[in-house]
Structure formats: C-alpha cells, structure tokens
Design goal:
The complex is a heterodimer. Chain A folds into 2 domains: 140 residues, P-loop containing nucleotide triphosphate hydrolases (Rossmann fold, 3-Layer(aba) Sandwich), CATH 3.40.50.300; 66 residues, no CATH class. Chain A is 33% helix and 26% strand. Chain A is built from 7 helices and 10 strands. In chain A, strands 6-7-8-3-9-10 form a 6-stranded mixed sheet, sandwiched between helices. A 4-stranded antiparallel sheet of chain A has the order 2-1-4-5, with helices on one face. In chain A, α3 packs parallel to α5. Chain B is of the alpha+beta class. Chain B has 10 helices and 4 strands. In chain B, α9 packs antiparallel against α10. Classes of the chains: A alpha/beta, B alpha+beta. At the A-B interface, α2 and α3 of A face α8 of B.
Chain lengths: 228, 290
C-alpha cells in the first residue's frame, strides 16, 4: 500500500533528514516509526501527504508515485489519508463538532450528513458529550481524541499520527494509542504513528521501524524500542 | 450556500474592514455614475443643439426667393447639411410677432420689410458648420451670418474633456477600491491562515479555499454599486425640477427607469469584476507563499 523506495531528503540548509529509506507498509498494518527528535520521523509522515518531497527516491501510495501527482490531485490524496498532527492543528474559535466537521465541509457534504457522521465519530472516540466545547475547554487526552475524530471522519485508508502522545501522561497516552489500535482492528485502517515514547511502543507490540539520524536501523514485527 | 453563510459570518466578525471596502466601492461607483450621467446629459444637449439650425444666412433685400432656393439646393448638393429651411420675410415676421407678442412696442416698430429672408441650415457634423458658414460668406447675396458653431464646438469640447477627466478620476478611484479590497481580503486571509492551512491538509481544493474570498469581494462590489446607483437615482429625482429649469427647452426628464436598471447592472458587473480581481490578487499572493 505504502512504499518508500530509497528515499532521501536533504534540506536547503544542508541537513540530511532521511538517508536512503526503503520500506513497505501493507494495508491494515499498525506501524510505529520511532527515533529521537530529528531522526526523520515527521519528515517521513509529511512526505506521505506531500507536504514535503524527497530529494531522491520515490514514495508510492497504492503503487503510484506521490511526487508525480499533479498539484490538483494532492487534495484527493489527502482525503484518503487522515492525519493527527504533532500540534493537533485544531481551530480554537471552533467547537469540537465544528473542528471534526472540517474534512466533511471540504467534501461539500450536507448538514444532515455532517451532523450524523460527526456524532458517530465523536461517539467512537468517546467525546460526544464535548461536541459543543471549544478546544481550550478540553482536558488532557480530549484534544487528541478530537484530532483523531477529525482524522477518521472521512473514513481514510491510512491514518498518520505524528507524536500524538507528546504532551500526555502515561495513562492518557495508552488510552489514545488504544483508540488508534481499536480503529486499526475494527475498520482495518492502516496506522502509521511516529513517536519517541518507548513505553507506548513496547506496550502495544506492533511493527517498529527505528530511525537514527535519517537512516533506518531496525524494522521489526512486534518490535521493541529502547530510547537513547 | 454554506460558504456564502460562512462569508457573511466572517464579515460580521470584523465589520469595519467590510464597511471600509463597501464604502470605497460606493464612492467609486457613485462618482462613476455622476460622470456617466454628465456625459449622457452632455450628449443629449449636444444632440439638441445639433438638431437646431446651426447656421442662419440672411440675404439682402434684392435677392429673389428663386435665387435663395437655388443656393439652398447647391448647399444640399454638398452633402454637408442635414436640414435646410427657407424662411421668407413674411414667415420671419410671423415668427417675430409670435416671439414678441407680449411687447407691443417692439411689434409696432417692426414690419416684414425690416426682416430679411434667410436660410436656416443644420449640419451633419459639428465640424461641418464652419465649412457651411465659410461657403455663405463667399456669396455676395448673403448680408450676414449667425453661426453658433462656437457654442456647439465648445460644448463638444467640454463633453470630451468631461469624458477624459471622468475616465481618469474614476480610474484612480477604481485603483483605490482595488487596493482596499486587496488589503481587506488579505487581512481576512491572514486571520484565517490556520484554518486555510488545516483545510489544505485535510484535502480542500484551492478553489474551495478561495471561494469565500471571491464571494466576499463580489459582495463588496454588489453592495457598493447598489448604494451608488440608489444615491444617484435619489439625487436626480430630488433635483430634477432644478436641473430641468436650468436646461430650459432641452427635455431630459423623466429619465427612464430602464436607464437606471442598465446603469445598475453595468456597475454591478464592473464592481464584481473589481472585487473578484482584488480578491484573486490577495489570494494569489497568499497561496503562492504558503
């Protein structure tokens, strides 16, 4: 489903973010991409949504080179991928309901459809009662759940989660990743999660891809990660 | 529909920029309307004057009627005249009597013999009047000529000047409106930068992101042009007796409501173009540097 073919990324500053990454992820997999800060995890995630392009190599999505897409096709690609961003990117002036509704508005769905689907997504992530709250009124974990609800609302084939547990305590972290695991199992959605939280990685026993200074140093099924 | 609602919500959130943009548009198109009406009115006055006899040649008493009619035919043959009217001494006297019927002193002192027979000529074009009067001057039968060619010529010049000045003035105002729209829409884009960025990442097309800003630009145009047309219509309605009084026999009022409908439609079209183009430039700048 997703394939990195000898992908390298060098920023104009001269810093190498990725160095010859080759990786294949099948449909329905749950993959942790781990490594210290600056290892290249976010760069990999951003290449899948074509926020970034590789300096060399290819990134394939369903056997198609993402970088060969015309600009007009990029929105269509992004609709097939749900993303939970590192900083969540929630709109502070919109309620939880309105935030989750954004991808459906973009698809020009009717108000009735939006009402039904947003309620269903909020119920799935367990924050239906917070529908009318603003992000600033949410407790720890609820912001992440809102971001996950927005990522799953358009029923994507893949969910990319970039450090979704960064600011959470261990209990909420487990709960949020548990939610992603549930989505992976129930909807067969492919999950790619970037994290440096070894506790989480070791708890869930999923495929682990370890990056160090832009190079892939380990790719293991039911792997472990020892940070540092 | 949803996006139009969102646009209105955005406008309500920061109404002052919206008011500034709509007022700038109103001012621009109000001034444009005034110039259009001034030019249109000027054309009507010119048309009126052109239809009036523009050169009157008075013949000496010795000139026979048959000779005057011969001269009239010669002038007609040049193709420069639109209409030639022969007025005999008697007819001239009748006109004189009619004009001064309330002044017996003037009526008593003049008989038909005092008034010369004459030819009243109107030209095809304003520029032809000069040629016609020149032609009359060369004829020994012609005693004197009255040719208001200068009045018509000057009025034509004034109309041309008004048109040019109007074009320049309205162009400057359009440029100002344009810049205000770019500024206002640019500010809105800046305010919604996060939202736009998120929309981009969840798969919104550029057109979906741009549409509310185009709607906003067009809305300023529609509001501005409508206010301008309404103001001009009200002003003309209010001052029509005074204007008509000033113009005397030149009938301009009542102006057909259709004229105002066309004026409004043309202005709305022009204003939407300005609004949408302004929004497009603001969007181009933002989307290009995203």
């Amino acid at each position: 489903m997703i394939e990195f073919q000898s992908v390298s990324k060098k920023y104009p500053s001269g810093q190498t973010a990725l160095d010859g990454i080759s990786l294949k992820i099948e449909s329905g997999e749950f993959v942790f991409i781990v490594g210290l800060s600056g290892a290249g995890k976010s760069t990999m995630i951003k290449m899948l949504t074509r926020e970034l392009s590789p300096s060399s190599g290819k990134v394939l999505f369903n056997n198609e080179d993402i970088n060969a897409f015309k600009k007009s096709r990029i929105p269509l690609l992004r609709r097939r991928i749900g993303t939970v961003f590192q900083d969540f990117k929630l709109l502070l002036t919109r309620t939880v309901f309105e935030n989750v509704a954004v991808p459906l508005e973009v698809l020009s769905k009717s108000e009735a459809e939006i009402e039904k689907e947003v309620s269903s997504a909020l119920e799935k992530v367990g924050i239906l009662d917070k529908a009318n709250s603003f992000p600033s009124q949410l407790a720890g974990g609820e912001v992440q759940r809102t971001a996950i609800a927005r990522a799953i609302i358009s029923k994507p084939e893949v969910i990319l989660a970039d450090e979704p547990t960064g600011d959470l305590d261990p209990k909420n972290s487990l709960s949020v990743v548990g939610l992603l695991e549930k989505i992976n199992k129930e909807d067969k959605t492919t999950i790619i999660m970037a994290t440096h939280n070894s506790q989480i990685v070791n708890h869930f026993k999923k495929r682990v891809v370890v990056l160090e200074k832009g190079k892939m140093v380990k790719d293991q099924k039911e792997g472990r990660y020892e940070a540092g | 529909m949803k996006q139009a609602k969102d646009t209105l919500k955005q406008i309500r959130r920061s109404p002052y920029q919206a008011i500034a943009a709509a007022l700038a548009m109103s001012l621009t198109f109000f001034v444009a309307s005034l110039f259009i009406i001034l030019i249109f009115g000027g054309q009507l006055v010119l048309l009126y004057l052109e239809q009036r006899p523009q050169a009157i040649a008075f013949f000496s008493d010795e000139t026979k009627e048959s000779r005057i009619l011969e001269i009239a035919k010669e002038i007609e043959a040049t193709g420069l005249s639109k209409e030639i009217k022969y007025v005999s001494k008697e007819e001239a006297y009748e006109i004189y009597r009619e004009r001064f019927k309330d002044d017996p002193l003037l009526l008593e002192s003049v008989t038909a013999d005092f008034l010369p027979a004459h030819l009243e000529v109107s030209a095809q074009k304003v520029d032809d009047i000069k040629i016609l009067t020149e032609g009359f001057r060369q004829r020994e039968e012609v005693e004197s000529i009255v040719a208001p060619e200068d009045v018509v010529g000057k009025l034509a010049n004034v109309t041309r000047t008004v048109r040019t000045a109007g074009l320049i003035f309205v162009s400057v105002l359009i440029a100002i409106s344009f810049l205000i729209i770019i500024m206002v829409v640019g500010m809105r884009i800046a305010l919604r930068r996060d939202e736009i960025s998120i929309m981009n990442l969840v798969g919104a097309t550029k057109w979906y992101i741009a549409r509310p800003f185009f709607i906003e630009g067009a809305l300023y145009g529609i509001i501005g042009a409508s206010i301008a047309t309404f103001l001009v219509y009200s002003l003309l309605l209010f001052y029509s007796p005074q204007i008509q009084n000033f113009l005397g026999p030149i009938q301009i009022f009542p102006i057909s409501p259709l004229f105002f409908l066309y004026l409004w439609l043309a202005q709305v079209f022009a204003a939407i173009t300005v609004g949408v183009l302004g929004a497009a430039i603001a969007l181009y700048r933002y989307l290009r540097v995203k």
